[in-house]
Amino acid sequence: MIIQEFRVVNNCTEEEYQVAQLYATAQASKENTGGGEGVEVLKNEPYEKEDGEKGQYTYKIFRLASRVPSFVRAIAPAGSLDMYEEAWNAYPRCKTVLRNGWMKDAFSIVYETLHVDGSRGELDNALKISEADLKKREVILIDVANDKVDSKDYKPEEDPKLYHSEKTGRGPLNDPQWIKKVEPVMTCYKLVYIEFKWFGLQSRVESFIAKTVHNLFLKFHRQLFCWTDSWYGMSIQDIRDLEAKTKEDLDKKRQDGSAVEGTTAPAE
Hints:
Blueprint: E1 2-10, H1 14-31, E2 38-48, E3 54-63, H2 70-73, E4 83-90, E5 93-100, E6 107-117, H3 131-136, E7 138-142, H4 178-181, E8 186-196, H5 202-226, H6 228-231, H7 236-253
Parallel strand pairs: 1-7
Antiparallel strand pairs: 1-8, 2-3, 3-4, 4-5, 5-6, 6-8
Helix pairs in contact: 1-5, 1-7
InterPro entries: PI_transfer (IPR001666), PI_transfer_N (IPR055261), START-like_dom_sf (IPR023393)
Pfam families: IP_trans (PF02121)
GO molecular function: phosphatidylcholine binding; phosphatidylcholine transporter activity; phosphatidylinositol binding; phosphatidylinositol transfer activity
């Protein structure tokens, strides 16, 4: 098992990020759906647990077989590579579980996220994990402006070092020390557990997944900042309306002949 904690600093408030993240998730899903592949939203509804926790529950299927490494596709039965995602968004704390129906308990990716207002990534154990997990944990600070992105994912309009928000006056994030200086600021502390139990492939696949998750978080949060003028000022009800429309669009796009591009972002 790989345990990594990603710390993503953002130039917005914790309250703003709740809307920004949901908006960006909807947009990323549309961007990566088509040609028979993509995201299918089966449930998106409020939930309440026995302990009183309340939030929004989503259940999605990711049909993205073309993104799986060739050495996995070669041994996996046809149609067995769909991913099933459950997410419990009790903002500012969220949990997401990603599984595969064919591999069952032998494969999982679990995200636990805490969003902290005013933080610049300095909290050492924001999610209060056990001493045993702390010893295994690798901490990765993501700098959305200065970390190198894959050349195929680079777009000037999604570059925080170039983007300026007309509505908020934020950006461009071209100061090398922007994380220490920018206001407003918040941090997503994202703890990720990656497990792939398959003799002979475990280390290789877990490393591939870890790299993919890192790139996904970097691309997603670069887009989130550069879409500020699109989500800024939206309400949660605006987002729910957008999600309903997005579900309709995804269902249509998944059936058309155009290919998907990039990697779809999982829920927070």
